[in-house]
Amino acid sequence: MELTRLRGFRDILGVDAQTMALVEERARGLMRRYNIGEIRTPVLEAVQLFQRTAGETSDLVEKQIYSFTDRDQGETVVALRPEGTAGVVRAYIEAGLDRSDPEQRFFYSGPVFRRERPQKGRYRQHFQFGVEIFGRPDAACDAELLTLLDDLRGALDLELSFEINSIGDHECRPKFRQAVLDFGLKHEAQLCDDCRRRLRQNPLRLLDCKTDAALVESAPKSIEYLCVPCRTHYDTVKSLLDAAGVAFVENYRLVRGLDYYTRTTFEVKSANLGAQNTVAGGGRYDGFVEMLGGAPVAGIGFGIGIDRVALAVQAANKLAALSPAAVIIALGEPALHHAAGLARTLRAGQIDVEVLSPERKIKALLGRASKIGARFAVIVGEDELKRGVVQLRDLLLSKQSEVPATQLAHIVGAALAS
């Protein structure tokens, strides 16, 4: 039997792994600047957590969850997490923070699992970076999260578009829901099978259906049904984004794919990814904590698809190939021991170094140095070892000079900085 990876899963290596690491590194770097701390939740949760929060008629619950019965847990049905927010909210409540210290700012990163039809940018295991903020019902918090995403866009030097909407709250959303239901019933014969099946239970799903997109263009708009507080909240979000210099467009069909959202919803898209162009999305979920048995605490958050952002980075050619600044070539056993110390000295000076194999000839090693994109080759043999020097070859300029071993880190560092 040949052992291969499962359908919809992938091995991530080389430039793909490098790009994903870059995206996560830049995202993590922003967290400290925004005073957001890390939270790590289990990959495995009770399946009811997602059934209660995502909605019984959502694609996530109906089609995409990986679930099984855990015989070690009293026949509990468990699921691999299909999204990050529900587990964070569960942990927030279980730690008692909703009552003892409600205002919290968390970020998380890790794999999520959905049984979807695999295609480029959509995998059954993908990686998500998310932020969840609790205890902040104000519009300033909504604008701050969108500004954070715009800062990440800038840190990755990407061209992304921001779409926002408001879907109202418990006061005005029912009227909007009824209007969409009436519209769906009027055009029921034209709807796809999925929309007809779930229309009466969750009519807002109609608005994000790709199959019925042309029909939905004439559907009611949420903006037309907002109550005064929701309208004020939404207008404030927009004015704060303008003040922060965050460009956005309004998309009145934007409802997101999960049932717990209220008021502000948003998506971030890349023009370079084809059909799977949404790289981040989120919104406000002020009733979510209470839905799971917690206190009536406001919440808002977003999730970033690291895989898709990495594809956008690659499509925009924003990633330099992974290469060391220098390689060390040791000629002989005594030189090899010395090379180990030289490598540590260079790395301590923030210089990337690879020590090449001592079992190959120097011509092959210089060829390897060029292939992996090294700027310098540091050559040390028995004679250099005795005299306390190294041969430093600049592979970019095709020049070689002899330098004191004690000055190597300074010379290489200065050359890289110039």
Indicate the topology.
Layout lengths: L13 H20 L3 E2 L5 E3 H8 L4 H6 L2 E4 L5 E5 L4 H10 L2 H4 L3 E10 L11 E10 L4 H17 L4 E7 L6 H14 L6 H6 L14 H4 L11 H17 L4 E2 L11 E9 L7 E7 L3 H4 L7 E7 H10 L10 E5 L2 H16 L4 E3 L6 H10 L4 E5 L1 H6 L1 E6 L4 E6 L3 H10 L1
Parallel strand pairs: 1-5, 7-8, 12-13, 12-14
Antiparallel strand pairs: 2-4, 3-4, 5-6, 6-11, 7-9, 9-10, 10-11, 14-15, 15-16
Under the CATH scheme, the architecture of the largest domain is 2-Layer Sandwich
Lateral strand order in the biggest sheet: 1-5-6-11-10-9-7-8
The CATH topology of the largest domain is what? BirA Bifunctional Protein, domain 2
- CATH C-level class of the largest domain is Alpha Beta
Describe the global form. elongated
**How far apart lie the N and C ends?**
55 Å
Q: What's the domain count?
A: 2
**Which spans have pLDDT < 50 for at least 5 consecutive residues?**
none
Mean pLDDT: 89
Structure write-up:
By secondary structure, the protein is of the alpha+beta class. The chain folds into 2 domains: 14-172 and 226-315, 2-Layer Sandwich (BirA Bifunctional Protein, domain 2); 326-417, Rossmann fold. It is built from 16 helices and 16 strands. It has helices spanning 14-33, 47-54, 59-64, 85-94, 97-100, 139-155, 173-186, 193-198, 213-216, 228-244, 288-291, 306-315, 333-348, 362-371, 382-387, 408-417; strands at 37-38, 44-46, 67-70, 76-80, 104-113, 125-134, 160-166, 249-250, 262-270, 278-284, 299-305, 326-330, 353-355, 376-380, 389-394, 399-404. Strands 1-5-6-11-10-9-7-8 form an 8-stranded mixed β-sheet, sandwiched between helices. Helix 13 (333-348) links the parallel strand 12 and strand 13. Helix 1 crosses helix 12 and helix 6 runs parallel beside helix 10. It is elongated and about 85 Å long. 36% of the residues are buried.
